[in-house]
Amino acid sequence: MPPKNRFTRLTLIRLLSAVVLLAVTILAGSFVFSRGGDPAALATGEVPPGESLRAPEEERSSESAIVSVKEDGGEEAVLPEEAGDPAEAEDPTEPEGPVEAEDPAEPEDPAEAEDPADSEDPAEAEDPAQPEDPVEAEDPAQPEDPVEAEDPAQSEAPMEAEDPNGTEETEPADEPTVTEDPAGPEETTPPEENETAGPEESGEAEPGQGDTPDPEQPPAPNDPKAAILAEREPLLPAHVATGIFRDAAGAAVSYTWGEPVPETTPTDDGWFSDAVFVGNSLFDGLWLYGNIKGGSFLSAKSISVNNIMKEAPINKGGVYLTIPEALSLKQYRKVYVMLGVNELILAPASYYESYASLIDTIRELQPGAEIYIQSITPVTRETSENNVYVNQANILAFNEQLRLLSADKQVYYINIHDELMDEEGFLPDDKAFDGIHLLRSYYEKWCDYLRCHTITEVNQ
Questions:
Q1: Residue 86 DSSP SS3
Q2: From residue 97, how far is each of 17, 73, 102, 146, 315 by CA, in Å?
Q3: Which domain holds residue 19?
Q4: Which of 121, 143, 165 is the last residue of a domain?
Q5: Strand, coil or helix: 400
Q6: Which of 41, 146, 305, 417 lies 20 to 30 Å from 120 when distance is taken between CA atoms?
Q7: pLDDT 10s digits, 109-141
């Protein structure tokens, strides 16, 4: 072949080879970028972890003929041969060197050099030692497509995230359907009768389970008042009337319900050992300044028949109880009641009804006790003449209601009023400090009166 024709043919072959190489490189680069590859790594021959330069044996055996192009660095880039292109067919008579060798003056762009491993589908050319998909298990040091690349320090989507070291993906620990504490012991379940409690009772309970007691079961007493009231003494047997009366000394006493208790043989304070005094501030004074020993007092300022069931003045270990609540804690044989001075603004009939209701409550709480209601004490003349309600006329009217109540409810009536009044029916001015409440000497006189007006009905 003439030298001129040979030169022309070689030039044409080299140009066609460069065009084919450029086209294949562009196609391979596009494929690599779409798969998250690194062009720089392709140019240098470095392969990211998890990838292999070697194709599987079955793929290498089935590949078509390939053309090897010698690079300046002494490495080979494997390119698929374009079959059927006459311009690329080699002349068997010509040496391979000129065809394969690149012009040293025209180095190929490293970004365009194709890594042999990238000519194959990464999903099909896996290293057997790497079980994960290279697309999902990439080296965080390799830059990725900005759309898909994330900072390795940041958490990725639960279905795609894998540990940079190639560990298998794990489900998030806070999956909404998982309600058990992963670090804690097994959840304890309540008794069988509590299985119907709603899941809203506890964030860790599974549907159909709960941690609260069944509403039908009485809850444990978590209220201090409930705990105190739960310790009530058992009720005594009910007192059965016989119509036979005796005093503290055992002597017979003639008595008619509704009449004042008559004078009896004086007794000591042993009579009051099983007695309780329920009333207003006048009983407070009797407790403070009287000389009764052994009795219990459940009294408070401003207590009346209207508020005695609601007000809670009795302090029991830091817990405040109403007088009836406190009365229910212990069983007594005698209950003395003193209420009336704070009720003088009421109509007498209303006073009677409220008092009668209180008597019924006391009998329910103290079935084995006898009840002694005491008259309203007198007030001084000055108080009576200058007060619309607290005056002598109202006091006498209310005491009459008490006498009637004594007859209707069969309770004893103790007329302390007449014992403390002067000749004109008033409380002596020098025996009260405010016209109503007594001085010490008159509280002592009151106690002496109770000691010599004792009565009890023989219980059947």
A1: coil
A2: 13, 16, 9, 42, 114
A3: 1-51+95-165
A4: 165
A5: helix
A6: 146
A7: 434 444 434 444 434 444 444 444 433 444 444
